[in-house]
Each structure stands twice: as structure tokens, then as C-alpha cells.
């Protein structure tokens, strides 16, 4: 397993080693930028940190050595995590990864690939089993104050599929109503790591390969009834353009 490229940033906010084995990876959302997190974690007054931060551009920053507990998951509030050790600070037996962005963001492909590589490396170096109790969201530890960490945008299904071996299924595809939607389509595909683009046939049927993608982003035209569809369609091309613009943010 190749170690991903990690840029050391450092933070004064960590504990001395407590002698616990790291049992789990805890995923977080920054609700902000990577640069903002770098400076917040560098500030002793913030009293918070994580081991890693992953930017939307795929950059991985490290703030705390894995031998030291970071200050990311201290508060336990109505937890739903079965491996929680009663009476022990969860920071002592977890590795934490922050992700740039907000909890409703669609994770860019570069960020996804970086966090996937980081998860794979941590799983191997720390011997962490790939289960829903060993790779968790912060909300499993604090379901009251951290209910949206990492939030609805976090790609749990895709991450577990890839960590459990992965396959050749297309993860994201963009479906255009006509070729006229091409430029809107390239912007949408670019936001998803330049994923595959399909155009509906002249009878407006949907290519089978597009339907087999894990997520299908539809630019213009009616619903495809794909189980994981993002429908960016209005009643006319102007409304569709507005829906695309809103999606692209
Ligand atoms: Zn969090």
C-alpha cells in the first residue's frame, strides 16, 4: 500500500500518548476551508485539531502524529457507536480526518480519491477492519451537537464499496437531454472529476451504461427513475440552465 502524499502542518493541540490502540477512523466535515482549518488548528486557543485534513483539491494535510490523540471527538452525546469505550475519551482510540467543505456539498472527485487513499493507508497501517463500526462519522459519537458531521454529502456507500474491493461500475455519470446541453454538462462533469457524459438517444431513451452508474446527474429532460438521480431540469432550457447554475454553486 502506497502512502499518499501528506503535507505536514502541525498543531499544538494534542494529548500525550495514552496507550490505546486506534480502533476507528472518524470522518468529519470542516464546515469551512482547508486553509481556515490549518490556521484554526495551529491556534492553541482553539483547543481543537484532527490528525488529517483533506482539501477539495485532493491535498492532504496532517496536524497531529498518529501516536498522539488529536482533539476532534472529545464530546460524547447520545452516541450510536457500539465500539465506544465507556468513560474513556474517544480521542484516545480514534484517528480523525477532516474534509474541506460543508455537510451538504457534493464531494469533488479529487477530494474523494485523496480521502479514499488516506483511508486505505490508515486501514493497512493501523490494521483497522473495514466495517461500519470501524469507519464512522462524528455524529455516531455526538448525535446532538455533531448530527451534520460529516453530513449528507459524505459518500459513505461509495467509500465502503471501494474499501471493500471496488469494481468497475461507473460511479457518476452525467446525462444530457440533447447535445446542446454539452457545455452545461461539461461543467457538471468537471465538478464530479470529469466523469462520463452521455446524451439521450433521439427517442430520448437513456443509455444502459448511464443507468448502471451509481449516481446519475440528469441535465435537462424528464426523470430517468435512476435510484440515485440528481435531476437538473426545468420546464424549458432557461429553467434547466438555472438548475445547473444552482448545482454548480
Ligand atoms: Zn466533526
Give an account of the 3D structure:
The protein contains six helices and ten strands, in the order ββαβββαβαβαβαββα. With 249 residues, it is an alpha/beta fold. The chain has two domains: 157 residues, 3-Layer(aba) Sandwich (Lysozyme-like), CATH 3.40.80; 77 residues, Rossmann fold, CATH 3.40.50. The protein has a six-stranded mixed β-sheet, sandwiched between helices. A four-stranded parallel β-sheet has the order 8-7-9-10. Helix 4 links the parallel strand 7 and strand 8. Helix 4 packs parallel to helix 6. It is elongated and about 65 Å long. Zinc ion binds next to loops.
Characteristics of this structure?
Lysozyme-like, alpha/beta, 4-stranded parallel β-sheet, 6 helices, 249 residues, Rossmann fold, elongated, binds zinc ion
Brief overview, please?
This protein is α/β, with parallel strands linked by helices and 249 residues long.
Topology:
Layout: E1 7-8, E2 24-27, H1 34-42, E3 52-54, E4 60-62, E5 94-99, H2 109-125, E6 135-137, H3 156-163, E7 172-176, H4 182-191, E8 196-199, H5 208-211, E9 215-219, E10 229-232, H6 237-248
Parallel strand pairs: 1-4, 2-5, 2-6, 3-5, 7-8, 7-9, 9-10
Antiparallel strand pairs: 3-4
Bound molecules: zinc ion.
Zinc ion (ZN) binds next to loops.
Mean pLDDT: 91
CATH architecture of the largest domain: 3-Layer(aba) Sandwich
Low-confidence stretches: none
Percentage of residues in helical conformation = 10-25%
Amino acid at each position: 500500500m502506497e502512502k499518499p502524499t501528506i503535507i505536514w502542518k502541525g498543531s499544538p493541540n494534542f494529548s500525550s500518548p495514552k496507550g490505546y490502540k486506534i480502533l476507528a477512523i472518524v470522518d468529519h466535515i470542516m464546515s469551512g476551508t482547508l486553509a481556515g482549518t490549518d490556521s484554526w488548528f495551529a491556534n492553541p486557543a482553539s483547543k481543537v485539531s484532527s490528525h488529517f485534513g483533506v482539501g477539495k483539491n485532493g491535498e492532504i494535510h496532517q496536524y497531529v502524529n498518529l501516536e498522539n490523540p488529536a482533539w476532534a471527538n472529545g464530546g460524547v452525546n447520545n452516541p450510536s457507536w457500539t465500539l465506544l469505550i465507556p468513560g474513556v475519551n474517544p480521542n484516545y482510540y480514534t484517528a480523525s480526518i477532516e474534509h474541506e467543505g460543508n455537510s451538504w456539498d457534493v464531494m469533488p472527485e479529487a477530494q474523494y480519491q485523496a480521502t479514499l487513499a488516506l483511508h486505505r493507508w490508515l486501514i493497512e497501517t493501523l490494521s483497522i477492519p473495514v466495517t461500519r463500526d470501524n469507519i464512522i462519522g462524528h455524529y455516531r459519537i455526538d448525535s446532538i451537537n455533531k448530527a451534520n458531521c460529516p453530513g449528507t454529502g459524505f459518500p459513505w456507500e461509495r467509500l465502503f464499496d471501494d474499501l471493500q474491493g471496488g469494481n468497475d461500475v461507473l460511479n457518476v455519470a452525467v446525462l444530457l437531454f440533447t447535445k446542446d446541453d454539452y457545455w452545461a454538462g461539461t461543467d457538471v462533469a468537471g465538478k464530479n472529476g470529469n466523469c462520463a457524459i452521455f446524451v439521450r438517444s433521439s427517442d430520448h431513451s437513456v443509455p444502459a451504461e448511464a443507468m448502471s452508474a451509481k449516481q446519475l446527474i440528469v441535465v435537462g429532460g424528464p426523470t430517468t427513475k435512476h435510484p440515485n438521480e440528481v435531476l437538473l431540469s426545468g420546464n424549458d432550457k432557461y429553467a434547466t440552465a438555472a438548475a445547473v447554475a444552482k448545482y454548480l454553486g
